[in-house]
């Protein structure tokens, strides 16, 4: 599990509000909703994916084309590392298909996703990569592992499989928060219960708000079956991109890039630091805006451009933000 729930919640019920200093800072953030990312060591990547796909319906066609070109360029980086496409092929195809699926009119996306989510919910065998595919990926990934001595058999894809099979114990504190009865159910925002905070808004503005909130929830529902595969792909992207661009990124860390990736990027349970965040913003060409709840200079931009993915940071954890 990577999002505790696909629903969107008002930021005012975030656990960080229990701290008065954080409350003041968060009230200054121009985003008023969020989703709970699981505290499983992948919360940044989860938040990035949720924000990325929620942003796609609202960006220009030109920007979407640039994203697709960036994906194609990243394939070249993988090729330079002699990575066989059997290692990442299924993950990449899924990601590319989703970029196309979510680059549409919001109302059309909602209709499509509502239908597909109903179909998935009625099928006990949810859409996942088959065991045979995963076994094949594990086998072919050895080629990637042999490229550098810093790679070992406990690579990204095998770590992904361990994670998918829940082979390590990591208590999900976010789930406890959701189970806390003190959280008002009336605060939950989903496609059946949209919170309308300001009755003075014009109908068309309110309708646009409802469409956005419904869209975000439907996208998150759809992503629930794919988060882990997509996170594995992002980790492969970041790991190879950092190694391929050592001269650019090496000055920002004290240890060798290969060792850094082996310790912080390749393991599936290690969350991202500033280097990985900056790298991911460079790879896909969409900026990332981190809002920190624990410091006065509460906002930091990674990457360039007018379009940013907003993410909330509380000590040791990231959550996706929504307007």
UniProtKB/TrEMBL annotation:
GO terms, biological process: protein K48-linked deubiquitination
Pfam families found in the cross-reference section: Peptidase_C65 (PF10275)
GO molecular function, one term: ubiquitin binding
Domain OTU stretches: 32-323
One cellular-component annotation, GO: nucleus
Family annotation (InterPro entries): OTU_dom (IPR003323), Papain-like_cys_pep_sf (IPR038765), Peptidase_C65_otubain (IPR019400), Peptidase_C65_otubain_sub2 (IPR042467)
Official protein name in the record: OTU domain-containing protein
Organism: Edhazardia aedis (strain USNM 41457)
Organism taxonomic ancestry: Eukaryota, Fungi, Fungi incertae sedis, Microsporidia, Edhazardia
């Amino acid at each position: 599990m990577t999002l505790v729930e696909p629903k969107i919640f008002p930021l005012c019920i975030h656990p960080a509000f229990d701290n008065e200093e954080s409350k003041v800072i968060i009230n200054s953030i121009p985003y008023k909703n969020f989703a709970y990312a699981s505290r499983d060591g992948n919360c940044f990547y989860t938040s990035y994916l949720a924000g990325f796909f929620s942003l796609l319906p609202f960006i220009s066609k030109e920007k979407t084309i640039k994203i697709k070109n960036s994906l194609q360029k990243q394939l070249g980086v993988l090729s330079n590392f002699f990575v066989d496409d059997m290692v990442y092929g299924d993950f990449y195809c899924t990601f590319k298909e989703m970029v196309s699926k979510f680059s549409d009119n919001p109302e059309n996306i909602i209709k499509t996703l509502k239908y597909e989510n109903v179909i998935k919910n009625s099928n006990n065998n949810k859409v996942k990569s088959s065991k045979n595919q995963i076994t094949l990926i594990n086998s072919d990934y050895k080629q990637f592992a042999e490229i550098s001595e810093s790679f070992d058999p406990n690579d990204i894809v095998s770590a992904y499989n361990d994670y998918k099979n829940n082979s390590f114990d990591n208590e999900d504190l976010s789930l406890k928060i959701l189970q806390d009865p003190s959280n008002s159910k009336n605060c939950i925002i989903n496609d059946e219960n949209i919170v309308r905070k300001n009755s003075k808004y014009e109908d068309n503005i309110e309708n646009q708000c409802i469409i956005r909130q419904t869209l975000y929830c439907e996208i998150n529902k759809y992503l629930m079956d794919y988060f882990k595969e997509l996170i594995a792909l992002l980790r492969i992207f970041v790991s190879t991109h950092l190694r391929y661009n050592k001269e650019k990124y090496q000055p920002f860390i004290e240890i060798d890039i290969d060792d850094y990736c082996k310790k912080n990027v390749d393991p599936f349970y290690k969350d991202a630091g500033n280097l990985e965040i900056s790298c991911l913003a460079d790879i896909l060409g969409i900026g990332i805006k981190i809002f920190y709840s624990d410091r006065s200079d509460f906002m930091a931009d990674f990457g360039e451009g007018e379009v940013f993915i907003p993410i909330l940071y509380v000590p040791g954890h990231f959550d996706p933000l929504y307007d």
